[in-house]
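Thread: "does anyone have the structure for this chain?"

Original post by V.I.:
We have the sequence but no experimental structure in hand. Need at least a predicted one for the grant figures.
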Amino acid sequence: MSEQWRLLLTGGNTASVNMAVDRAILVAHSEGKVPPTVRFYNWVPPAISIGYFQSLTEEVDINACKKLGVDYVRRITGGGAVFHDKELTYSIVISETHSSIPKNILKSYARICNALIRGLQELGIRGTYAPINDIVVDGKKISGNAQTRKINTVLQHGTILLDVDVDKMFSLLKVPNEKIKDKMITDVKQRVTSLHHVLDTSIGFDQVAAAMKTGFEDEFRVTLVEGTLTDEEIIHAKRFEKEYFSSFQWNHRR
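Reply from O.Q.:
Generated one for you, C-alpha coordinates below.
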Protein backbone atom coordinates (compact mmCIF):
# COMPACT_ATOMS: atom_id res chain seq x y z
CA MET A 1 0.00 0.00 0.00
CA SER A 2 1.36 3.41 -0.94
CA GLU A 3 2.16 6.09 1.61
CA GLN A 4 -0.71 8.50 2.24
CA TRP A 5 -0.16 12.23 2.15
CA ARG A 6 -2.73 14.91 2.88
CA LEU A 7 -4.34 16.96 0.09
CA LEU A 8 -5.81 20.36 0.95
CA LEU A 9 -8.11 22.20 -1.44
CA THR A 10 -8.47 25.54 0.29
CA GLY A 11 -9.93 27.56 -2.60
CA GLY A 12 -9.48 31.31 -2.93
CA ASN A 13 -8.22 33.43 -0.05
CA THR A 14 -6.51 36.75 0.49
CA ALA A 15 -2.76 36.96 0.04
CA SER A 16 -2.10 37.21 3.78
CA VAL A 17 -4.28 34.18 4.55
CA ASN A 18 -2.64 32.09 1.83
CA MET A 19 0.87 32.77 3.12
CA ALA A 20 -0.20 32.29 6.74
CA VAL A 21 -1.71 28.88 5.95
CA ASP A 22 1.47 27.71 4.19
CA ARG A 23 3.51 28.71 7.24
CA ALA A 24 1.03 27.08 9.64
CA ILE A 25 1.28 23.78 7.77
CA LEU A 26 5.08 24.00 7.88
CA VAL A 27 5.05 24.42 11.67
CA ALA A 28 2.50 21.64 12.20
CA HIS A 29 4.47 19.22 10.02
CA SER A 30 7.77 20.10 11.72
CA GLU A 31 6.15 19.11 15.02
CA GLY A 32 5.03 15.77 13.59
CA LYS A 33 1.35 16.64 13.92
CA VAL A 34 0.35 16.35 10.24
CA PRO A 35 1.59 14.19 7.35
CA PRO A 36 3.36 15.53 4.24
CA THR A 37 0.84 17.93 2.71
CA VAL A 38 0.09 19.15 -0.80
CA ARG A 39 -2.22 22.14 -1.07
CA PHE A 40 -3.90 23.71 -4.12
CA TYR A 41 -5.27 27.23 -3.84
CA ASN A 42 -5.80 30.55 -5.58
CA TRP A 43 -5.91 34.24 -4.71
CA VAL A 44 -9.05 36.30 -4.11
CA PRO A 45 -8.67 39.15 -4.80
CA PRO A 46 -5.70 38.96 -7.23
CA ALA A 47 -2.42 39.70 -5.50
CA ILE A 48 1.28 40.37 -5.87
CA SER A 49 3.65 38.40 -3.68
CA ILE A 50 7.24 39.57 -3.31
CA GLY A 51 10.22 37.45 -2.33
CA TYR A 52 11.46 37.57 1.25
CA PHE A 53 14.54 39.64 0.35
CA GLN A 54 12.81 42.20 -1.87
CA SER A 55 11.73 45.75 -1.11
CA LEU A 56 7.97 46.20 -1.40
CA THR A 57 8.15 49.89 -2.28
CA GLU A 58 10.85 49.32 -4.91
CA GLU A 59 9.01 46.44 -6.59
CA VAL A 60 5.31 47.23 -6.28
CA ASP A 61 3.17 50.25 -7.18
CA ILE A 62 1.08 50.21 -4.01
CA ASN A 63 -1.25 52.98 -5.19
CA ALA A 64 -2.02 51.07 -8.39
CA CYS A 65 -2.74 47.95 -6.33
CA LYS A 66 -5.17 49.84 -4.10
CA LYS A 67 -6.85 51.43 -7.12
CA LEU A 68 -7.35 48.06 -8.84
CA GLY A 69 -8.20 46.11 -5.68
CA VAL A 70 -5.06 43.96 -5.78
CA ASP A 71 -3.54 42.51 -2.60
CA TYR A 72 0.18 42.41 -1.82
CA VAL A 73 2.22 40.32 0.59
CA ARG A 74 5.80 39.32 1.42
CA ARG A 75 6.52 35.58 1.16
CA ILE A 76 8.81 33.60 3.46
CA THR A 77 10.43 32.19 0.32
CA GLY A 78 12.88 34.04 -1.90
CA GLY A 79 12.59 34.92 -5.57
CA GLY A 80 10.99 37.77 -7.42
CA ALA A 81 7.66 39.56 -7.47
CA VAL A 82 4.77 37.44 -8.79
CA PHE A 83 1.34 38.60 -9.94
CA HIS A 84 -1.23 36.01 -8.87
CA ASP A 85 -4.45 36.16 -10.85
CA LYS A 86 -5.66 33.35 -13.12
CA GLU A 87 -3.60 30.46 -11.86
CA LEU A 88 -3.40 27.38 -9.69
CA THR A 89 -0.96 27.76 -6.82
CA TYR A 90 0.36 24.68 -5.07
CA SER A 91 2.42 24.18 -1.95
CA ILE A 92 4.12 21.07 -0.63
CA VAL A 93 5.31 20.73 2.95
CA ILE A 94 7.49 17.74 3.78
CA SER A 95 10.36 16.84 6.10
CA GLU A 96 13.90 17.49 4.90
CA THR A 97 14.73 13.91 5.88
CA HIS A 98 11.92 12.29 3.89
CA SER A 99 13.30 9.80 1.38
CA SER A 100 11.40 11.51 -1.47
CA ILE A 101 13.24 14.82 -1.09
CA PRO A 102 16.88 15.12 -2.18
CA LYS A 103 19.15 17.00 0.23
CA ASN A 104 20.52 19.00 -2.71
CA ILE A 105 18.35 22.08 -3.29
CA LEU A 106 18.53 21.93 -7.09
CA LYS A 107 17.67 18.24 -7.15
CA SER A 108 14.75 18.83 -4.78
CA TYR A 109 13.39 21.57 -7.06
CA ALA A 110 13.68 19.17 -9.99
CA ARG A 111 11.88 16.38 -8.12
CA ILE A 112 8.95 18.53 -7.05
CA CYS A 113 8.72 20.27 -10.42
CA ASN A 114 8.58 16.87 -12.06
CA ALA A 115 5.29 16.26 -10.25
CA LEU A 116 3.94 19.39 -11.96
CA ILE A 117 5.33 18.23 -15.30
CA ARG A 118 3.49 14.93 -14.86
CA GLY A 119 0.35 16.93 -14.07
CA LEU A 120 0.77 18.90 -17.27
CA GLN A 121 1.08 15.61 -19.16
CA GLU A 122 -2.39 14.71 -17.84
CA LEU A 123 -3.60 17.83 -19.67
CA GLY A 124 -1.80 16.85 -22.86
CA ILE A 125 1.02 19.35 -22.38
CA ARG A 126 4.73 18.60 -22.47
CA GLY A 127 6.62 20.67 -19.93
CA THR A 128 10.33 20.77 -19.16
CA TYR A 129 12.18 21.66 -15.96
CA ALA A 130 14.35 24.77 -16.40
CA PRO A 131 16.72 25.17 -13.45
CA ILE A 132 16.68 26.65 -10.97
CA ASN A 133 12.95 26.94 -10.45
CA ASP A 134 10.89 27.21 -13.64
CA ILE A 135 8.87 24.91 -15.88
CA VAL A 136 8.68 25.80 -19.56
CA VAL A 137 6.44 24.72 -22.41
CA ASP A 138 7.73 25.28 -25.94
CA GLY A 139 10.52 27.37 -24.42
CA LYS A 140 8.13 29.66 -22.52
CA LYS A 141 7.67 29.82 -18.75
CA ILE A 142 4.38 28.41 -17.46
CA SER A 143 5.37 27.82 -13.83
CA GLY A 144 7.62 29.57 -11.32
CA ASN A 145 8.52 28.03 -7.97
CA ALA A 146 10.18 29.02 -4.69
CA GLN A 147 11.47 27.01 -1.75
CA THR A 148 12.52 27.54 1.84
CA ARG A 149 13.75 25.15 4.52
CA LYS A 150 12.94 25.89 8.14
CA ILE A 151 12.86 23.71 11.27
CA ASN A 152 14.00 20.68 9.26
CA THR A 153 11.04 21.09 6.92
CA VAL A 154 10.80 21.91 3.21
CA LEU A 155 8.14 24.31 1.94
CA GLN A 156 7.96 24.74 -1.80
CA HIS A 157 5.20 26.63 -3.51
CA GLY A 158 4.63 27.77 -7.06
CA THR A 159 2.19 28.52 -9.83
CA ILE A 160 0.66 27.00 -12.91
CA LEU A 161 -0.59 29.85 -15.10
CA LEU A 162 -4.13 29.30 -16.37
CA ASP A 163 -4.01 32.63 -18.19
CA VAL A 164 -1.80 35.69 -17.98
CA ASP A 165 -2.34 39.43 -18.39
CA VAL A 166 1.14 40.89 -18.83
CA ASP A 167 -0.10 44.46 -19.33
CA LYS A 168 -2.01 44.39 -16.04
CA MET A 169 1.00 42.87 -14.29
CA PHE A 170 3.26 45.69 -15.43
CA SER A 171 0.68 48.29 -14.36
CA LEU A 172 1.19 47.00 -10.79
CA LEU A 173 4.96 46.47 -10.77
CA LYS A 174 7.54 49.22 -10.79
CA VAL A 175 10.14 49.15 -13.52
CA PRO A 176 13.56 50.81 -13.16
CA ASN A 177 13.21 52.75 -16.40
CA GLU A 178 9.85 53.77 -17.87
CA LYS A 179 11.49 54.26 -21.27
CA ILE A 180 12.14 50.53 -21.62
CA LYS A 181 8.81 49.44 -20.13
CA ASP A 182 7.22 48.65 -23.50
CA LYS A 183 10.25 46.57 -24.48
CA MET A 184 10.04 44.68 -21.17
CA ILE A 185 6.33 43.96 -21.70
CA THR A 186 6.99 42.65 -25.20
CA ASP A 187 9.86 40.54 -23.90
CA VAL A 188 7.75 38.97 -21.13
CA LYS A 189 4.93 38.23 -23.57
CA GLN A 190 7.45 36.31 -25.67
CA ARG A 191 8.88 34.42 -22.68
CA VAL A 192 5.73 33.56 -20.67
CA THR A 193 2.81 31.34 -21.61
CA SER A 194 -0.31 29.87 -19.99
CA LEU A 195 -2.58 26.85 -20.24
CA HIS A 196 -5.12 28.97 -22.10
CA HIS A 197 -2.53 29.91 -24.70
CA VAL A 198 -1.08 26.41 -25.09
CA LEU A 199 -4.44 24.63 -25.25
CA ASP A 200 -6.19 27.45 -27.14
CA THR A 201 -9.15 27.10 -24.81
CA SER A 202 -10.10 28.10 -21.27
CA ILE A 203 -9.48 25.54 -18.56
CA GLY A 204 -10.86 25.55 -15.05
CA PHE A 205 -9.05 25.44 -11.72
CA ASP A 206 -10.68 22.15 -10.68
CA GLN A 207 -9.57 20.35 -13.84
CA VAL A 208 -6.00 21.54 -13.36
CA ALA A 209 -6.07 20.59 -9.67
CA ALA A 210 -7.19 17.07 -10.56
CA ALA A 211 -4.35 16.74 -13.07
CA MET A 212 -1.78 18.04 -10.58
CA LYS A 213 -3.07 15.63 -7.92
CA THR A 214 -2.35 12.77 -10.31
CA GLY A 215 1.05 14.27 -11.08
CA PHE A 216 2.08 14.35 -7.43
CA GLU A 217 0.77 10.84 -6.83
CA ASP A 218 2.62 9.44 -9.84
CA GLU A 219 5.90 11.22 -9.12
CA PHE A 220 6.08 10.40 -5.41
CA ARG A 221 4.18 7.09 -5.59
CA VAL A 222 1.81 8.15 -2.84
CA THR A 223 -1.93 8.52 -2.40
CA LEU A 224 -3.19 12.04 -1.75
CA VAL A 225 -6.12 11.88 0.64
CA GLU A 226 -8.27 15.01 0.79
CA GLY A 227 -8.36 16.49 4.28
CA THR A 228 -8.78 19.74 6.14
CA LEU A 229 -6.63 22.02 8.23
CA THR A 230 -6.45 20.96 11.87
CA ASP A 231 -7.79 23.25 14.58
CA GLU A 232 -4.21 23.95 15.63
CA GLU A 233 -3.19 24.88 12.08
CA ILE A 234 -6.14 27.28 11.87
CA ILE A 235 -5.05 28.92 15.14
CA HIS A 236 -1.45 29.15 13.88
CA ALA A 237 -2.61 30.61 10.56
CA LYS A 238 -4.72 33.31 12.21
CA ARG A 239 -1.79 34.29 14.42
CA PHE A 240 0.70 34.30 11.53
CA GLU A 241 -1.64 36.40 9.41
CA LYS A 242 -2.05 38.99 12.16
CA GLU A 243 1.58 39.08 13.30
CA TYR A 244 3.22 38.81 9.91
CA PHE A 245 1.48 38.68 6.58
CA SER A 246 -1.14 41.40 7.06
CA SER A 247 1.15 43.66 9.08
CA PHE A 248 2.86 46.79 7.80
CA GLN A 249 6.06 45.83 9.63
CA TRP A 250 6.36 42.49 7.79
CA ASN A 251 5.41 43.64 4.31
CA HIS A 252 7.48 46.84 4.45
CA ARG A 253 10.44 45.39 6.32
CA ARG A 254 12.78 46.11 3.39
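V.I.: this helps a lot. Residues 11 and 41 are 5 Å apart (CA to CA).
O.Q.: and The domain at 3-251 is CATH 3.30.930.10 (BirA Bifunctional Protein; domain 2).
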